[in-house]
Amino acid sequence: MNIQEIQDLIKFVAKSQVSEVEIEKKDFKITIKSEMKSKGGGNDQPIIVQAAAPAPLAIPAAAPVTAVAPAVAAPEVASNLIEIKSPMIGTFYRSSGPDKDLFVNVGDTIGVGDTVCIIEAMKLFNEIEAEVIGKIVKVLVDDATPVEYDQPLFLVEPA
Fold first, then answer.
1. How far is CA 2 from CA 13, 122, 148, 155, in A?
2. Mean of the per-residue pLDDT values for the chain?
3. b/e burial code for range 109-129 (CB count within 10 A of at least 16 → b)
């Protein structure tokens, strides 16, 4: 399934009386739900929930394999630090816009539910909230760079 087909499904759910569409193929499953804000339609915002990640692509045995350095080296994590990890694949942003303040900086104290960054996935901007109370020790990702599922974004010293 390509991005255009997914966008067409989102438009279909947003414009129709359908509240949920679920598609399951061999290598992925996607559910698109519409959160109805008003009973007569109007201003419905579709919400996408990806239930299962796509299966990794297999490399044919005859294909040449070259060693590639990882984009982000795994940081050495002190035993007392907690990682805030990316819950999805997308583009990492430290602020809500180019002229806006950063959500968090090194040294900032955060609480449960505080927004620490935004991850854009398929034109949807998802606020990532802290699930721990503590102090930001290190930002592990550069602004406006791609991130993978479960990739560490921040190191936090718990309070």
1. 17, 11, 19, 35
2. 77
3. ebeeebebbbbebeeeebebb
Cβ(153)–Cβ(92) below 8 Å: yes
* Closest alpha carbon to 21 in 12, 32, 10: 32
pLDDT in tens, 18-63: 677 777 777 767 777 766 544 445 554 545 545 445 555 454 555 4
Provide the 8-state DSSP code for 95. B
Phi-psi region of 43 (alpha: psi -120 to 50; beta: other; left: phi over 0): left
d(CA 134, CA 111): 7
DSSP line for 3-63: HHHHHHHHHHHHHSS--EEEEE-SS-EEEEEEE-SSTT-SS-EEEEEEEEPPPPPPPPTTS
**Domains in the chain, CATH or no CATH each:** 3-52 (no CATH), 82-158 (2.40.50.100)
Sort residue 53 into left (φ over 0), alpha (ψ -120 to 50) or beta.
Answer: beta
Q: Pick the closest to residue 151 from 125, 123, 113, 117 (CA basis).
A: 117
